[in-house]
């Protein structure tokens, strides 16, 4: 039987933790095993006449399931505050 490991990372260290994880082997927890040369590549594309660019870490997906609001409402509150602060810092949703 496998155990799920919960690793908490302070928001102030998310960028550093993500960068370390990029080059960490996939055999390790949170490892992506991306070559150094690939880590800085940027892909550009146009959508509806506007130019965009993406690189590792550009897209974040998050989900709040229906059980979150009953079993752990603090997570919903935290997600809302994080979303508000990201918007205040210029995050755009399209």
From TrEMBL:
The keyword Mitochondrion does not apply. InterPro entries: Acnase/IPM_dHydase_lsu_aba_1/3 (IPR015931), Acoase/IPM_deHydtase_lsu_aba (IPR001030), Aconitase/IRP2 (IPR006249), Aconitase_4Fe-4S_BS (IPR018136), Aconitase_4Fe-4S_dom (IPR036008). Transmembrane segments: none annotated. It comes from the Eukaryota. Residues 32-93 form the Aconitase/3-isopropylmalate dehydratase large subunit alpha/beta/alpha domain. Keywords: Iron, Iron-sulfur, Metal-binding. GO terms for molecular function: iron-sulfur cluster binding; metal ion binding. This is Aconitase, putative. It comes from Perkinsus marinus (strain ATCC 50983 / TXsc).
């Amino acid at each position: 039987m496998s155990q799920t490991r919960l690793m908490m990372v302070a928001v102030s260290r998310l960028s550093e933790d993500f960068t370390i994880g990029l080059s960490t082997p996939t055999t390790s927890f949170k490892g992506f095993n991306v070559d150094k040369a690939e880590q800085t590549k940027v892909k550009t594309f146009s959508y509806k006449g506007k130019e965009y660019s993406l690189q590792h870490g550009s897209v974040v997906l998050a989900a709040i399931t229906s059980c979150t609001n009953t079993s752990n409402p603090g997570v919903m509150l935290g997600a809302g505050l994080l979303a508000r602060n990201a918007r205040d810092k210029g995050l755009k949703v399209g």
